[in-house]
Amino acid sequence: MLNIVLFGPPGAGKGTQSEKLIDRFQLVHLSTGDIFRANIKGETELGKLAKSYMDKGELVPDSVTISMLESEVNKYADPKGFIFDGFPRTSAQADALDNFLTSKGTEITAMLALEVEEAELKTRLLNRAQTSGRPDDADPEIIQNRINVYNRETAPVADFYRAQNKYRGINGIGSIEEISDRLFKAIETIVV
Ligand code: AMP
To answer: Catalytic: 48?
Structure first.
């Protein structure tokens, strides 16, 4: 299986690039943010819980997020692989994902990390707010909190994959096509 963690701060382009990667490599796209938003729309208990954190730009607790992600993975009988978009976001999530995939006889192939500087992230998120309808994109204070949470809790997850020699940094500045080309090349050099 080809299992990719698509990593990067909020606004780095993970969702957009995931679409390109699933087309090219026939992978299943699992975005924890999208799954939470679908639950909010469907007014489920999980959605209500997730919304209370997401509206503030905080992380949804690990236990809830990990069990949701595992049950999503288990829905697929014979996948070619997964793009994990927005997960893992904490060291505990990275550990849990490793153990879970090992128990299924597979593993993460690589972490591809989109690198974009903070000023550009803020501009992109405020622009995206005009079409995304996401309350967490529209408020500069919430955006700043999401970036702070990323720096504090999520950025260290890169070290987890560096230690396994699975980390690849990708320049996240340029056109959508330029960036997907960089991602495709990185994957092709890993899988050959
Ligand atoms: P995203 O769509 O990836 O930008 O995620 C939007 C929001 O969903 C985040 O700011 C968090 O509140 C929540 N979220 C998404 N993925 C996770 C995760 N892996 N762990 C905890 N919270 C998450």
So the answer is: no
